[in-house]
Amino acid sequence: MRTYGQFCGIAKALDIVGDRWTLLIVREMLALGPCRYSDLRNGLPGIATNLLASRLKELEAADIILREAAHPPVASHLFVLTERGRELEGVLRELGRWGMPMLEEPGQDDVFQAHWLAVPAKALTDRAPDEPPAVVQLKAEGVTNLVIEMARGTIHVHTGRVDHPSASMAGPPELLSSVLAGTIALETAQRRGLHVTGDLSAVERMLPLDDEKRD
Amino acid sequence: MRTYGQFCGIAKALDIVGDRWTLLIVREMLALGPCRYSDLRNGLPGIATNLLASRLKELEAADIILREAAHPPVASHLFVLTERGRELEGVLRELGRWGMPMLEEPGQDDVFQAHWLAVPAKALTDRAPDEPPAVVQLKAEGVTNLVIEMARGTIHVHTGRVDHPSASMAGPPELLSSVLAGTIALETAQRRGLHVTGDLSAVERMLPLDDEKRD
DNA sequence: CCGGATCCGGGTTGATACTG
DNA sequence: CAGTATCAACCCGGATCCGG
Fold it and tell me: Residue B73: pLDDT band by 50, 70, 90 thresholds?
């Protein structure tokens, strides 16, 4: 492994997670939870299979992920983040926040997958722990849907759909991204084509407060 | 430029700053302020000069730095971070925090430079805005010294030495790093060989609070 | 189909030398 | 001082193949 050879926390971190694709692999596992090899490959369009295999080995050696025998019915094994791996969420949150301004326009030939919204969404906190649990369904055009669940002050995210959500948001990726990141207000997004149905207060409860929006 | 082609803030950020050396160049400019080409090269031991030149061009194109004509007396020109560049501080802070546990042992052949402590130090806040300004001098073994100035609630860091600091800390890099990051308590560090002289309260005023130490 | 391993062409990096 | 030029080595991406 190539290192910078500097006695500096930033350099040490980049020694481990600074290689191409590495942080995106961690993003996948933060967004999806335990992943099969092919889940990862699907979430990382363009990665070479040998690179994915080699990165997974390096991440395992660095104690960021581990390989877990899957429960009998289905797959052979799963890749899971360790505690040390989950601690990278702060890095990814800051990177995502910094990169958000570049998502304002729809993106020419970019691929979009709904679960990538999970990282900004997980950075949120449900500030109304006393309110009853609520579920918001996200539908981006042409991709898997996303479910955001709030209960007891925390937020949990997963892909898929749910039968009776408290509220639903549907629209183009850039509007969903910007709203979840707090870059634009909900009303603005609605005016630009975001469709919100159901309990509006459940959605508002989920969005960043003003002082969480740095950009 | 090679991009991931994903409509995702994290991927967009990595498209720009994910290349090898790029974030370390930003670290240098955050720590040192405006830099000459050779300041950067000195702070990045091991970088190839052509790589440095090419990264600087890319950073300039991405509006992260700009090239500024220097004031008459000395250099030809300086590299300065733009606002957009300074906004990367959050990313570097999180990376440094995550990498800190790897600095616990002195590091075999690693190079150390005092100004690398500036990034963790800048992440601090002076929580005693009403107290008089204070200056802490840092002396790591065998390298340039560092000055941390507190006044009116904020902290400012630069290299060099000052004549009459409020307090002084001297010792091996790993102790200084850990203390500034809040990984170990000041007393522990003193017991392990950190020398603190002068006004102890000035030093304590500068260290992370318990709830700022995540690790 | 899943989870890779192998091979190959081309782009990127790094070391050194050299120049205005 | 601030780079450019050159070149070898390595890394990356794409395709192919292979054992469960």
Answer: low
